[in-house]
Amino acid sequence: MDITTAIANERRELAAMLDSLEPAQWDAPTLCAGWRVREVAAHMSMGFRYSLPRMVLELIKARGDINRMTDRRARQDAATLSTADLVSAIRDNARHPWKPPVGGITAALGHDVIHGLDITVALGIDRRVPEDRVRVLLEHITPRTLKFFGADLDGVELRADDLDWSFGTGTPLTGAAQDLLLVAYGRKLPPGHLHGTARDRYIAA
């Protein structure tokens, strides 16, 4: 799969999805704790809107804490940019070469896919990420990925029920591959997405 093309397609599809939302949905919570749809969209487009020197300056302001920096910028940008601005920033930068500090181009695809799911799953929108994109990200899940995103899979085996994939050992936790991908990225999901005796650990309160 051409990951660059997959990223471009994912961004265009997410921009179309965001463009279809009602005003109230932009203020609805997502799977990203404390962020509404508009904060997630602002975060997704930050790498396109900020130059490298600006990013460095913002990081210095946050005393080197990248999580503090991204949270502050997402909230401030969401408060000042219109929803049309946020949609355009994602759509118009479909082929922007931005990548996260670590992980390369695959991490860029993961950034878009996961944050898109943060929105659609929380809103109850039945969007299926194309299987080839999901498979690429599943193949890159490692213990280091779990640690980075704070996912606790101790004694749990992730087992997809819509394609041939599993990860880990222990009590099976089953669900759609893209939902299990969210679990591996440290998310908790609404009820009904996961199955198995371990599911309560991964369901949002």
TrEMBL record:
Q: Which InterPro entries match?
A: DinB/YfiT-like (IPR034660), Maleyloyr_isom (IPR017517), MDMPI_metal-binding (IPR024344)
One GO term in the molecular function aspect is: metal ion binding
Domain annotation Mycothiol-dependent maleylpyruvate isomerase metal-binding: ranges = 9-95
The organism named in the record is [Actinomadura] parvosata subsp. kistnae
Origin: domain of life = Bacteria
This protein is called what? Mycothiol-dependent maleylpyruvate isomerase metal-binding domain-containing protein
